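Example with several molecule types.
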Amino acid sequence: MRRRLPFMLALSLTLLTAMFLVVPALMSMLAGVTSVYARGISSGLTTEWIIEVWRLYADTIWRSILIALLTLLATLLIGVPVAYAFVVNPSRFTRILDEIMTLPLAVPGLAVALAMLQLYGGFTDFRRSSLFIVAGHVVFTLPFMVRAVAATLSAVDIRTLEEGAASLGARPLRRFLDIVVPAAMPGILAGSLMVVTLSIGEFNLTWMLHTPLTKTLPVGLADSYASMRLEIASAYTLVFFIMIMPLLIAMQIAARANAGKEALP
Amino acid sequence: MTAGVSIELKGIAKTYAGGVQALKPTDLAVARGETLVFLGPSGCGKTTCLRLIAGLEMPDPNGSLSFDGEDVTRTEIEDRNVGMVFQSYALFPNMSVAENIGYGLKVRKIAPAERDRRVREMLALCGIEALSERAIDQLSGGQRQRVALARAVAIRPRVLLLDEPLTALDAALRERLRGELDQLLRSLGITSIYVTHDQAEAMALGDRIVVMRQGAIAQIGAPRDIYFRPASRFVAEFVGAANVLSGEVRDGSLHLEGGKLALAGTGVGHDRSLMVMLRPESIRLIAPDQAVWRGRISAVSFLGDRQRVTVTGAAAQPVTVEPGNDLELAIGDLVGLDPAPGSLVVIPKETDSA
Ligand SMILES: Nc1ncnc2c1ncn2[C@@H]1O[C@H](COP(=O)(O)OP(=O)(O)O)[C@@H](O)[C@H]1O
Ligand SMILES: [Mg+2]
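Resulting structure tokens for the full complex:
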């Protein structure tokens, strides 16, 4: 009995907090499928607003997905080898590199964006393409990929595994693909989910870097809040939730699978 | 199967970044098909020497390493064709047992059918056919050891290198696998270099033993040579229990606290003082009135197959004797000590401290 009281307290507090966040979100999503929000649910449910969102903003949704996938590709190609180098050759140099790489996380996104605009603003074609946003997202998400992969690789004796493969005749590239990548896979998976989720949801940087022709989903969302009727903004939010939720859930599952694996001897 | 190659080290040394000279310039020749054991205390440079032969470390300039006369000093490990068994086994966790064993063959682009056949041959040789599809994390320590060995042998290496392959296992299993390993190495007839800090393992497996100390070779010889004719006090004490005794030489005998030892046949010159070694099992306990060397029993421990007896007063330090288990002994008894003929070994004076 004595132990139940703190538990009940904690539970009510959690529920209360959840309600504080969840109820408005639910209300907003509900608004997206309500005919006329001012008259409430009684005005009837409809998919009209979602269709309207698709008509107006489908391009931002596709662009966000494309940018997320390109960002993922870039962070994989850069992040996995960098994480491997950090783990196999820990030195003062790699530590400094790690610090530099993590810096953009501490600096506000707006400042990073400003720096990028000053530096690359002159390259007009690049600056006007979605690739400019991809570059910003890579700067922002790379440390997450590197950290996730490095953590996984540090947990195995990757150096000795590689020496084993080398003694069997495997050259460096072959060892990297056959031994290092599989060993890093749980970290690669967790890092990938993180990168895609962060990229799809990123607003600060993206808002500074976008042009009218390279709007992403969150930028479009801000746009709609400012200029569209409430039902459309709400339907748009609903679409965003539907896209991001599976990613968040997958991230949780991956994190749990990883934790389970590390608990084994 | 393969007989492997002969190996020759000439002036091979290794200084690690940071200035530790883990291996002093070393000359060593390993015969084709021989099993050579590096034996020595932890940190004496055994692993370093093995890794140099494997190609996992680059030696200091001026040394040279050759396999069957072919200089491989600058050859990368991928091209040396050496089989390596690591202390931690280094099995690939993302591959099954069969895939681990077949990996070296896959890298060598051997056709799948032939690869399969050789993997099965290896599984049979190491007695692990039933484990072929298992994941590595489902294997016991002994099973992992066998897979690691099978994987190294599958590539038909020129030399098999084993770094303390049994150290991670418990004592009973270690003894059994040691026997299996010995049979396997002999049936393969492959040149093998085996690193251990366990003298019993070294004796059981080695055609010859290289005793190492502080980055240098202390002695090379067959197990019997090393055991019965150690070249230094360090070797004498490292490869087994030893009584090291110092005394004065007079009239062809070594004079100790509890009597004297005849030096006939040891080829001693005209030294005035001498250090000798006697193994505990080569000293017989006899009646004190028949002996020229005596002492008093200060401790007896019954070990089942034999007893360990400590005798004081016979020499400056207590002397350990290991008589059979049928002798009734009590603390305080006066006993005579009788070394077996030829068991007395003169230890050369050392320049460095023991
Ligand atoms: N990679 C390394 N860097 C620096 N020193 C090392 C390295 N590997 C081994 N050593 C040092 O070299 C010496 C010999 O080591 P090692 O060959 O591993 O000995 P053993 O296998 O006989 O225990 C030790 O003093 C050890 O600390
Ligand atoms: Mg070692």
